[in-house]
């Protein structure tokens, strides 16, 4: 039986490696200049990649490592991102208390613009088909002398990215190189330079200005070598392809429709003051749940998971009809909603909002539970958009001198708002792993060092991704059959068992 070259590679000393290296990963034909060597090269400057760099720079053990970040988008735009106080980006994430604690620990939390961030303490989740409900009220779990506990903290992704960039830059530019507007054009194994180091088992990246950048024609490509190459480069990760790591997964044939909404201020005053609620209603007949998550100043962000056809319909509606559809989705029966999803689209110039008239009429004949959100009264211009929903999980997060984090490693259904939280969990674990390796004099790119990261994260992420997938499937069976009964039993029973509910709430907080 013969082992594959790539499997053997990490266990063979460098002087003997020539025989076991895959030729595919050998670097180019003509003698090239020695690449610049970094301890850690991170491809991808989204929240996961920037989080990793910020964490490495924040720790006294790893702050002196020579690190580079390569991001194809313009990070100057992310640095100077700004919106008026009454406007919000439509890409918003709910951060669990563990993610918030991690951001605090690395000194990034204090750099968030807190006027644009909103905590919530209650969650109302119910099944639109059976009406069964589970309410997550953290106040019940807290003694009257404690502040009500936060379920999650809503932040615009852009606010988080800007804070992480500031945190990285506040650590100074010694041993730090940020390649913005720069794309990785190739990654290959280096070579054994007679007059330099043996990089034959090291990833060497060729990076060049992104096509849209004015520098793309004037600046020559640069070559950099990585002791550890981190793929934080999203769902289509080039780093994952280089490392030949397979993914399993599927497309949900669903889109997440997002929008920034204004709410009526008729919501009853909350007690204790300032307590806010997130709402999610499962709509099996329409392909997924609709969620309304609070933002400051009586605003909210929408994530409505539905079929591509319904998503296209919703996006094509004029603002007033879109608002009526969102209000209807939290209030009307599946039959009513299916009817309204087929109504003729009315042009923006039309004076009569047919959707609103339909909603008003149907509401008179629909009993309303007491846990519905306040009425939506406005939708921010150009904030309605949609994203295809997918499930992907890499078969492993590590390979020699490579680690994957964030969406490069896993993409999950957003119904529990956990994708970015899992990414930040990866960041915390990988930065600890690197810290451990440095403290113990180990090579940070060695598989032996990286095992710890993979062991901590792969199973934990698979569990959360699997639960979200199961919930998606369970809540996509319309009608009143056995699955719907099971669903309603599940939610109602959980709602009456404080201990089980408490356990679920701690899971949602990101705790064990
Ligand atoms: C509708 C919706 C709602 C969501 N809501 C939530 C929520 O409430 N809570 C939550 O936790 N998560 C949520 N998520 C998930 C969350 O948005 C993602 O998990 C998170 O943004 C992924 O971050 P990342 O840094 O891993 O990847 P990305 O944000 O995808 O960053 C990857 C980066 O790599 C760069 N890149 C790619 N290729 C190259 C290359 N060749 N060279 C250089 N750079 C490259 C890209 O430009 C990009 O900046 C939601 C997702 C969706 C779709």
UniProtKB/TrEMBL annotation:
Mitochondrion: is it a keyword of this entry?
A: yes
Q: In which pathway does it act?
A: Cofactor biosynthesis; ubiquinone biosynthesis
InterPro entries named in the record: FAD-bd (IPR002938), FAD/NAD-bd_sf (IPR036188), Ubi_Hdrlase_CS (IPR018168), UbiH/COQ6 (IPR010971), UbiH/COQ6_monooxygenase (IPR051205), UbQ_mOase_COQ6 (IPR000689)
Q: What are its E.C. numbers?
A: 1.14.15.45, 1.14.15.46
SUPFAM superfamilies, alphabetized: FAD/NAD(P)-binding domain
Provide the topology term for how it sits in the membrane.
Answer: Peripheral membrane protein
UniProt-listed Pfam families: FAD_binding_3
Entry keyword annotation includes Flavoprotein: yes
**Annotated keywords:** FAD, Flavoprotein, Membrane, Mitochondrion, Mitochondrion inner membrane, Monooxygenase, Oxidoreductase, Ubiquinone biosynthesis
Reaction(s) catalyzed by this protein? Answer: a 4-hydroxy-3-(all-trans-polyprenyl)benzoate + 2 reduced [2Fe-2S]-[ferredoxin] + O2 + 2 H(+) = a 3,4-dihydroxy-5-(all-trans-polyprenyl)benzoate + 2 oxidized [2Fe-2S]-[ferredoxin] + H2O; a 2-methoxy-6-(all-trans-polyprenyl)phenol + 2 reduced [2Fe-2S]-[ferredoxin] + O2 + 2 H(+) = a 2-methoxy-6-(all-trans-polyprenyl)benzene-1,4-diol + 2 oxidized [2Fe-2S]-[ferredoxin] + H2O
Subcellular location per the Swiss-Prot or TrEMBL entry: Mitochondrion inner membrane
One CC-aspect GO term:
extrinsic component of mitochondrial inner membrane
**GO terms of molecular function:** 2-methoxy-6-polyprenolphenol 4-hydroxylase activity; 4-hydroxy-3-all-trans-polyprenylbenzoate oxygenase activity; FAD binding; oxidoreductase activity, acting on paired donors, with incorporation or reduction of molecular oxygen, reduced flavin or flavoprotein as one donor, and incorporation of one atom of oxygen
Domain FAD-binding, residue spans: 38-457
Q: Which cofactor does it need?
A: FAD
Q: What's this protein's function? A: FAD-dependent monooxygenase required for two non-consecutive steps during ubiquinone biosynthesis. Required for the C5-ring hydroxylation during ubiquinone biosynthesis by catalyzing the hydroxylation of 4-hydroxy-3-(all-trans-polyprenyl)benzoic acid to 3,4-dihydroxy-5-(all-trans-polyprenyl)benzoic acid. Also acts downstream of coq4, for the C1-hydroxylation during ubiquinone biosynthesis by catalyzing the hydroxylation of 2-methoxy-6-(all-trans-polyprenyl)phenol to 2-methoxy-6-(all-trans-polyprenyl)benzene-1,4-diol.
Subunit structure, as described in the record: Component of a multi-subunit COQ enzyme complex, composed of at least COQ3, COQ4, COQ5, COQ6, COQ7 and COQ9.
Which family does the record claim for this protein? Belongs to the UbiH/COQ6 family.
Listed NCBIfam families: Ubi-OHases (TIGR01988)
- Output this protein's name: Ubiquinone biosynthesis monooxygenase COQ6, mitochondrial
What organism is the protein native to? Penicilliopsis zonata CBS 506.65
